[in-house]
Amino acid sequence: AAIPAPNASCKNLCHPHQLFINFRDLGWHKWIIAPRGFMANYCHGHCPFSMTTALNSSNYAFMQALMHVVDPTIPQAVCIPTKLSPISMLYQDNDDNVILRHYEDMVVDECGCG
Amino acid sequence: FQFQEHVFLQFLGLDKMPSPQKFQPVPHIMKKIFQDREAAATTGVSQDLCFVKELGVRGNILRLLPDQGFFLYSNNLPKDSSCLQKLLYFNLSAVKDTEQLTMALLGLDLGPNTYYNLGPELELALCLVQEPHVWSRSIPKPGKMFVLQSVPWPQGILYFNLLDVAKVWNNNPQKNLGLFLEILVKGDRDPGVNFQLEATCARLSRLHASLLVVTLNPEQCHSSSRRRR
Question: 3-class SS at A112?
């Protein structure tokens, strides 16, 4: 059977959205020296079956989307980060030590259906 | 939200939310490493986050530990040939058991490099404190001396490799009784230069010490051979 065309417009498809995390909003500016915040981004959007190959999807997402068509009780593939990058943080702990650490997987660079 | 924040703070390696009264100064080398990593991230250059190329050592956590010791006497009239005596103490409890020490660099900031204040040549001695009960403010009995260095004035920051000492302290915290620092006036004292000498010793009372510690957490850093394969 033909797969119905997705209801979602292109702008509703899975893709990264800008999200700036400002440490002041969390009250963390009191102990984080730098940065003041960072562009973390997030993934959001639909993962329709017809677009699974175009939306940087995993093979598993393709199979899940296919099964969703067959059995709608199986949820659709979801929009998730597929490429993340680290940030460095300079902060002060409770012993007045100045610490520089690098944290992996803090910034969403790319999204896909998974 | 509070609970999840606590979980995230643990992920950051913190037991609870820090609440420093004021920010400590960040040394130039930490600023540079931070800025280099930020620039690489912005341009998309791949980085080995477990190697500190600026220091030439493996590691993924850098800590600047402030000196928690105290002056034994200073800025008064120097006694004999001694210009300054200080107990240096660094609390390494923040270093977790899972971390491996790869660098421990003691920095002694003797003040700005200035040629205005040419004073007498000094000698710097560093000894391990080996007897307990040093917190009674009595002068600790110095143990084994491991640094004796001539300090021609003027000087900025002097660095000393304390990796072996810091490893002992980290493995046996009870052995961390601190370091005894003494700055002496080199050679015979000329009564004519007393004024200059007093000024020099008074300036040294603003001495600032810190310990830069680099550690590697193997849980977050696979070995290089594994990464290559």
Answer: strand
Contact partners, residue B43, CB within 8 Å, separation at least 6? none
Average pLDDT over residues B17-39: 90
Looking at chain A, the number of H-run helices and the number of E-run strands are 2, 7
A-chain residues within 8 Å CB-CB of B66? 96-97
Per-residue confidence (pLDDT) for residue B141, from 0 to 100: 67
| Alpha carbons B70 and B134: distance in angstroms, whole number | 11
Query: What is the nearest CA distance from B116 to chain A, expressed in angstroms?
Result: 33
Spell out the residues 6+ positions from residue A49 whose beta carbon is closer than 8 angstroms to its own.
Answer: A3, A65, A66, A68, A69, A76
Edge-to-edge order in the sheet of strand B208-216:
A32-34, A79-92, A98-113, B61-66, B208-216, B100-109, B157-161
For residue B218, say if its preceding peptide bond is cis, omega within 30 degrees of 0.
Answer: no
Distance in angstroms (rounded) separating the CA atoms of residues B210 and B156: 14
Residue with structure tokens 């080199």? B186
Nearest residue of B to residue A39, measured between CA atoms: B42
Higher-pLDDT residue of B162, B135: B162
- Contact between B65 and B169 under an 8 Å Cβ cutoff? The reply is no
Query: DSSP code of B35?
Result: H
Mutate to test the interface with A, among B5, B36, B37, B52 (most CBs of A within 10 A): B37
ipTM: 0.80
Residue B109 scores a pLDDT above 80: yes
